[in-house]
Design brief:
Layout (H helix, E strand, L loop, with lengths): L6 E5 L4 H13 L4 E4 L7 H6 L8 E4 L2 E4 L1 H11 L11 H18 L1 H8 L3 H26 L12 H7 L2 H11 L10 H12 L1 H4 L5 H21 L1
Parallel strand pairs: 1-2
Antiparallel strand pairs: 1-3, 3-4
């Protein structure tokens, strides 16, 4: 690892958003300190460093806080330029990568939570259809963005790989908790093969939580969300 340059990541182990910052730093071979945030209650450090959203992760570089995971990954890419480019060099390709990153966070991944929160078979079936439609779009995007390579980034892990890859643990949890096979190798062969490569990537393996630990946390979280929904 390279010299740290006083780099710290404030976050929590279950968070896919925190994983993004850590994966990006790992790819860049930047040494950093991980500061665990309990969230209940939120620490003074978090409230001070991200007073607007009060969310993790927060990246600290030379004492300066940077917030929001997508912004953090871009900051890391633009700061440590000599090792492993993350965003494409071409402006159009870079714009397309950012488009799919936003789609994953704003449109596709929220369907997982909706599926787990659904109360009837009809509701679950309708959400499952949206999940599969989104997976089909991502399968097609993989071919377009990857340009024949093994990653969305082409020949190396890139921006979309980090964004979607950070959700893989929770996608697996959803599959195990619900029985819904999302990354089905028969339906989405390239996406399924890509997911296996991501989980085997050294920069990811070191920060990907153990699945049973995630299952336990996920079950607790879903029970809390359903109890809060019922109370309303």
């Amino acid at each position: 690892m390279a010299e740290s340059e006083d780099v710290k990541v404030l976050g929590a182990w279950p968070s896919p958003f925190v994983m993004r910052a850590r994966i990006a730093l790992n790819l860049k071979k930047v040494d950093y300190e991980f500061i665990a945030e309990t969230m209940h209650p939120k620490s003074e450090l978090l409230l001070k460093s991200n007073p607007v959203y009060k969310k993790i992760p927060v990246l600290f570089h030379k004492g300066n806080p940077i917030c929001e995971s997508l912004i953090i990954v871009q900051y890391i890419d633009e700061t440590w330029t000599s090792v492993h480019p993350i965003l494409p060099a071409d402006p159009y390709d870079r714009a397309i990568a950012r488009f799919w990153a936003v789609y994953i966070d704003d449109k596709w991944n929220p369907r997982m939570r909706e599926y787990n929160m659904a109360n009837t078979d009809e509701e679950r079936a309708a959400v499952a259809e949206q999940i599969f439609a989104g997976a089909k779009l991502l399968e097609e995007a993989f071919q377009t963005c990857g340009k024949g390579g093994k990653w969305f980034g082409g020949d190396a892990v890139g921006y979309v790989d980090i964004v979607l890859g950070s959700w893989l643990g929770w996608i697996r949890v959803t599959e195990k908790m619900s029985g819904l096979k999302i990354l089905d190798g028969d339906k989405f062969p390239q996406l399924a093969a890509w997911a296996d490569r991501v989980c085997a990537e050294e920069a990811v393996k070191s920060v990907m939580p153990e699945i049973n630990k995630m299952l336990e946390f996920g079950a607790t979280m879903m029970a809390r969300l359903k109890a809060a929904s019922s109370a309303k």
